[in-house]
Amino acid sequence: PLMSGPTPLPIPQLTAVALLTLAEAFSITMIYPFIAFMIVGFRELGVETEDEAGSWAGLLGSMFAFAQFLSAPIWGWASDRLPRRTIFVFGLSCSIAALLLFGLAQTFLMAVGARFLHGLTNGNIAVSKAYLAKITDDTNRAQGFGIIGFAFGIGFLVGPLIGGVLSDPAQQYGLHNAFLEKFPYFIPSACAACVSLVTIPIVLRYCKEPTELPGKECMPILVDPECEEGHPRLASDGRWLFRPRLAPRRSWHSVACDTVSGSDLAKRLSYGDRIRLSQTPNGCNMEPPCPHGSSRSLLIKPVFITVNVAYFLIALMQVLNIEVFALWAAASPELGGLGFEPGQIGIVLSVAGVTLVLWQLFVFARLCNGLGAVGTYKLGCVMVIVGILCEGIASYVLESSVAGAWAILLTFDILKVGGVVSCFTSCNIMVNNAVPMSEIGTATGVSQSVASLARAVGPFIGGQLFTLTLNSGQPFPLNFYFCFLLQASLLATGGLLALTLPSSLNSSYASRPSG
Questions:
Q1: pLDDT tens digit string along 233-282?
Q2: CB neighbourhood size of 363 (10 A)
Q3: What is the pLDDT of residue 31?
Q4: 253 forms bridges with which residues in the sheet?
Q5: Fewer CB atoms inside 10 Å of the end CB: C or N, the chain?
């Protein structure tokens, strides 16, 4: 049967993917509060104070992203050919091993190796986006991506908090224990590993494999292990649940919506099959559909490339902003900084984190449903540009009014974060809509690799550029403010690129007319 109105979200599968995303964000971000102290602890580097740890910390911090840049396309390709649940569990298992290895690291090389191994063997971020595209359709995809973004935001907030509170307990809390003194960062690493461990059985239970159902008017068909083979059942929300044969096949089936026979359908299906519902009165048949085109060629078409360039620009801007903001906020007011203490910087970051979570949960889906993914990306670019350019003048206002500087900083930080969330999530949706479902894993893998490249090189570029401009002695806007202009120009370029994107990216590839 055809469903009218928005498709109900598959809550069990969505919850499992959200928890998976939270676990990934937790494990990635928990190292940042103690990374500088960890570098000082590696005596072979000869770093005496945290102030000297910047370059080494940047190298260690970027290693996960660099490994993801190399491996994400491979994991995406694999997810189009293997059960995604298997890839999820493998990635979580490798995360546990890598996190424990990181917590036991006694040398810089061991820590770098653990982070590289973590990124190389874990493709869950990219694969989860492909899975989400499979279990949603055009009517509920924005809401689904918003919930996943909310989970990532929670992990992004909790990870650094746990990392800071639980790191080096012997030094922080006087817990003098031989093991904790030798491995001061084992507890936060083990905590992150436990989150991944708890996620595994939930993924195994609820991440059922969907078959492809092109067209926004069709409900996804999910594998249900409780169904007997050859005896599917119809769920209350209109989904056919079935248990396919284990032999892998990649064939298509055309099924009449009004005359579909459950038992006959189950006999014809096996894992990896695709389903197309039609209104023909001929009952079940096995006609392959006319493909839209070569999937390989789709990945090099201008639309897909443009979306990924836009994705790269927002990712590079974000990592530059994170790096520059931390340095600018701590810099002396005489040089153009804010002269903030760590606690004051923490307040701004907390406001940003709360904004990220609330925007994903309550705002993004409404924007995307109204403007479409392309329109939401354009709006996000404008918000980020205005937010960054205005945020940067807070240090000038600080000279005359501390309250005014705080008002400008927090107001435009909220605007900036809302724009960043809108751009990121819209890009994820456009990547999914740019290719057929049969290549969605490969597409998300490529986009994750592109974003990882930005996150690998961004910290180095941001740190070096800010240091040069801060001490250059140049007048406005070639002083520290040049870094803010650079960030805004990246999003201006992204906004111009978005003007070339077709409105067809607002809906799934399969819902468009072929030809």
A1: 444 444 444 444 433 333 333 343 333 444 444 444 443 344 443 333 33
A2: 15
A3: 87
A4: 275
A5: C
Q: Which residues of 410-440 are buried (b: 16+ CB within 10 A; e: fewer)?
A: bebbbbbbbbbbbbbbbbbbbbbbbbbbbbb
Q: Find out whether 457 and 470 touch, Cβ atoms under 8 Å.
A: no
Reply yes or no: is the peptide bond before residue 477 cis, omega within 30 of 0: yes
SS3 228: strand
Mean pLDDT of 284-288: 32
User: What pLDDT is stored for residue 238 in this prediction?
Assistant: 42
Q: What is the pLDDT of residue 47?
A: 81
Pairwise CA distance, residues 243 & 271, whole Å = 9
Tokens 């290693």 identify what position?
Answer: 63
CB atoms under 10 Å from CB of 234, counted, come to 14
What residue type is assigned to position 486 of the chain? L
Higher pLDDT, 63 or 472: 63
Q: How confident is the model at residue 51 (pLDDT cuts 50, 70, 90)?
A: low
CB distance 223 to 271 below 8 Å: yes
E-strand stretches of 154-232: 210-211, 221-223
Which two structure tokens, joined as six digits, stand for 274?
A: 């695709």
Q: Please give the Cα distance from 148 to 129 (Å, whole number).
A: 9
N residues, the chain: 515
Residue 186, Cβ density class (10 Å: 0-12 exposed, 13-18 middle, ≥19 buried): buried
What is the distance between the terminal CA atoms of the chain, rounded to a whole angstrom?
A: 27
| 96-110, 248-262, 311-325: range with lowest mean pLDDT | 248-262
Please state, in angstroms and rounded to a whole number, the distance separating the CA atoms of residues 479 and 461.
Answer: 16
Percent of residues, the chain, with pLDDT higher than 70: 79
CA-to-CA distance for 361 and 512, rounded, in angstroms?
29
**d(C-alpha 310, C-alpha 438), whole Å:** 23
Q: Phi/psi of residue 252, each to 5°?
A: -100, 155
Cα distance between residue 375 and residue 384, in whole Å: 14
Q: Which pLDDT value is given to residue 292?
A: 38
How buried is 281 (Cβ within 10 angstroms: 0-12 exposed, 13-18 middle, 19+ buried)? exposed
